[in-house]
Design brief:
Order of helices and strands of chain A: HHHHHHHHHH
Largest sheet of chain B: 13 strands, parallel
Shape of chain A: globular
Structural class of chain A: mainly alpha
Helix content of chain A: over 70%
Shape of chain B: elongated
Number of strands of chain B: 23
Structural class of chain B: alpha/beta
Number of domains of chain A: 2
Number of helices of chain B: 15
Radius of gyration of chain B: 35 Å
Distance between the termini of chain A: 51 Å
CATH class of the largest domain in chain A: Mainly Alpha
Oligomer: heterodimer
CATH superfamily of the largest domain in chain A: RNA polymerase sigma factor, region 2, helix turn helix motif
CATH architecture of the largest domain in chain A: Orthogonal Bundle
């Protein structure tokens, strides 16, 4: 099963072949877990969400039409699942709050070294990952959808029920927050 | 030209700026080195973010995938299972060495004395309020449950297959109209009496606080009450569930009874099969065939024409037994007036617990053996049957997973809902028999009831499979969905459930909770499956 082409595995999975699902799990579980981990914030919840995504996959594999690569499709399924989970968790308040462009974002920018563009060592990468997981949910979710799942602004806006401009502002603020956290960590 | 805002450059670096604005930005960048440097920094940031996020969080390697674990799962898991077995054996050994003081045995609901006490107290409770209350309650609940079940099935199915709705409604009406159709003669009231000058030509089902037969019942008598007294004649069999069953008259057939006490002072044409606390055949009692009984106390003063087999705490024989007497349990006393035509076989714990008076007549051989009480855990047979049980459950689990992968895994997942599953499962466990009883009272309902019964029993069996798989998953800390891992989780979970089920006192409760949890998860998954599939 391990050496089979993805297309073949998908075909078998459509026929509800348990081994094929196991193979899909083996290939993509880590990617899905990573996404869930970043989106949901805790490893335990992410673990459960990963299982649920793969359970869901067994029911919905028939709806995959091949128009996007399978890994991207699966990550979108997973991100939807996580967003639903976040919404359920905090139904009272909006998960991703509306954001207005603030003063800093419309100020004329100046260049300068950014701790985000500089650090590269493994240790520093780990520091960035940790900083991302500690971001507030309304910054973390769009950031992860953009740079992990590779979704465009329009698609992120659609999934989170926001306007496109607000997505841009949230991403901008998320990065600014990261820079500040990392800069203070370096001092 | 003025410089753009940092937000605009951020959107530009993401490639998400509208075409016209992007063109203006590009044109500005050719002229402004400062802004060019900023955009380069922003792009570098994006690259770092993608790169960093592309590397999975540290736990990903630990929790999911685990290539090293997959290669050596057999050894790791075998070690785990072996360790658990060893621990389980040690715990069982420890429990087995504990002894409950004999004086407290009646409090222990899992001992025979405690169980009998509990059952008859419950029976008395219902009997005291009149069995009719229970019957009425069951009637009403059953009606409601049956109609509710049918209505919801009709709505549920109707939603999916609109055209079948009218047919289902018709079925509901037919079932409802055909409810009262039992052919036996039924009587229930506080006192059910068949008077001395009365003859019932059919079989009689009687329920009441006191059921008294002074006249003649030409068929069988099925009696439920606090007291069942037969001083007249029952030409068929007597089946009774009562706190006290007393036969002073004649029962021409067999007696099958589950009572706290059975007193026979009259004639029984055939045999007595009894599970009672106290069984007494007094000196006027005559049993035409034999006796097979499980009882705390047995007293035989009358005549039994054939063999007597009793499992008893204590048995006193002063009457006559035509053939063999076989007894296992506590102590056996044969008075000098006792007569055993055949062999005497006794299995007791101590030699001195068998007392045979000097004038006792025993026609055949005496075989008295002292059984050293050994724990069942010391018999290899016990482990063999447990292994068979486990294998069967694994096989059933595997079949279920192959045939209905989504459903089986979904049900396993639903076990995790905890109290929701327990509550739902308890409702299903209790409600289904009520529905079946009411359904069985209808002519057209019987095939449906038989199907429901088969499903009910299968679900009770499968409950441990789902709970086992869930438990294993939790313990092995896996978020996996492969068949092999699911089965391994199942094995670990079933082992734990099995071992836990043998713990004295709480073992029974654990098994009960497992059944409730599993049934609840099944009910929930069935409900979920009946809804349109969620879009993702």
């Amino acid at each position: 099963m391990e050496e089979l082409e993805l297309e073949t595995v998908l075909e078998l999975a459509r026929g509800h072949d348990a081994e094929a699902f196991a193979e899909l799990y083996r290939r993509y579980a880590r990617r899905v877990f990573g996404l869930c981990r970043y989106l949901l914030g805790s490893a335990e919840t992410a673990e459960d969400a990963t299982s649920e995504v793969f359970l869901k996959l067994q029911r919905s594999i028939g709806t995959y039409d091949g128009s996007v690569p399978f890994p991207s499709w699966l990550l979108r399924v997973a991100s939807n699942h996580c967003i639903d989970a976040l919404r359920r968790k905090q139904r009272e308040r909006r998960v991703i709050g509306e954001a207005e462009a603030d003063k800093a974002s419309i100020e004329v920018a100046g260049p300068g070294p950014s701790p985000l563009s500089e650090i590269i060592s493994a240790e520093q990468q780990a520091a960035i990952r940790q900083a991302i997981t500690r971001l507030p949910e309304n910054y973390r979710v769009p950031l992860v959808l953009r740079y992990y799942t590779d979704l465009g602004y329009d698609e992120i806006a659609k999934r989170l029920g926001l306007k496109r401009d607000h997505v841009a502002v949230l991403l901008f603020r998320a990065k600014r927050e990261l820079r500040q956290v990392l800069a203070s960590g370096k001092e | 030209m003025d410089c753009f805002s940092e937000l605009t450059y951020t959107i530009f670096a993401d490639g998400e700026l509208a075409a016209e604005e992007a063109r203006q930005v590009r044109s500005h960048l050719t002229a402004c080195a400062r802004c060019r440097e900023l955009v380069e920094t922003l792009r570098a940031e994006n690259r770092v973010l993608k790169e960093v996020l592309g590397e999975l969080p540290q736990e990903a390697g630990e929790r999911v995938g685990l290539p090293w674990f997959r290669r050596s799962w057999v050894w790791g898991d075998l070690a785990l299972v072996t360790a658990m077995l060893a621990l389980g054996a040690a715990v069982l050994q420890w429990f087995d060495e504990r002894r409950v003081p004999a004086g407290l045995e009646w409090l222990n609901p899992f001992s025979s004395a405690g169980g009998m006490n509990l059952i008859f107290n419950l029976t008395y409770y219902f009997g005291h309020g009149g069995a009719a209350v229970l019957t009425h309650y069951a009637d009403i609940m059953g009606w409601l449950a049956l109609l509710g079940l049918l209505a919801s099935s009709a709505v549920l199915l109707g939603r999916r297959w609109g055209r079948s709705r009218s047919g289902l409604c018709l079925l509901t009406v037919v079932l409802a109209l055909s409810l009262p159709s039992i052919a036996l003669e039924r009587r229930h009231s506080e006192f059910v009496t068949v008077a001395a000058n009365e003859t019932v030509d059919d079989s009689l089902v009687a329920a009441g606080n006191t059921v008294r037969i002074e006249g003649v019942v030409n068929g069988d008598l099925l009696a439920f009450g606090r007291t069942v007294e037969v001083s007249g004649t029952v030409k068929g069999d007597l089946v009774s569930w009562a706190q006290r069953t007393e036969v002073r008259g004649i029962v021409e057939g067999h007696i099958y009874t589950f009572s706290q006490s059975l007193d026979v002072g009259g004639q029984v044409g055939r045999s007595i099969y009894a599970w009672v606390q106290s069984l007494r055949v007094d000196d006027k009692g005559h049993v035409g065939d034999g006796i097979v009984a499980g009882a705390a106390d047995v007293g035989l003063e009358g005549n039994v024409m054939r063999s007597v087999t009793v499992f008893a705490g204590s048995a006193d024989v002063s009457g006559s037994i035509g053939r063999d007497l076989t007894m296992a349990g506590g102590n056996l006393t044969l008075a000098n007036s006792a007569r055993v035509g055949g062999n005497l076989t006794a299995r007791v714990r101590r030699q001195e617990e068998v007392r045979i008076a000097e004038g006792t007549t025993i026609g055949g051989k005496r075989d008295i053996k002292v059984q050293v009480q050994t724990t069942r855990f010391a018999h290899p047979k016990f482990y063999f049957f447990q292994a068979v049980w486990l294998l069967a459950a694994m096989l059933v689990g595997w079949l279920g997973l192959v045939l209905f992968p989504g459903f089986f895994q979904g049900t396993t997942q639903a076990v995790g809902a905890g109290w929701r599953s327990v509550g739902l499962g308890f409702a299903v466990l209790v409600g289904t028999p009520v529905v079946m009883i009411v359904g069985a009272a209808t002519l057209v309902g019987i095939p449906l009831v038989l199907m429901l019964l088969a499903l009910y029993l299968a679900a009770i069996y499968l409950a441990k499979v789902w709970v086992g798989a869930f438990l294993g998953k939790i313990l092995l800390k896996r978020g996996t969905a492969t068949t092999r891992d699911w089965l391994l989780d199942l094995l670990v979970g079933l082992l734990i459930i099995t071992v836990a089920g043998f713990i004295p006192y709480v073992g029974g409760l654990i098994r009960f909770a497992v059944v409730c949890l599993g049934l609840g998860a099944l009910a929930w998954e069935l409900y979920r499956a009946s809804r349109p599939a969620a879009t993702i």
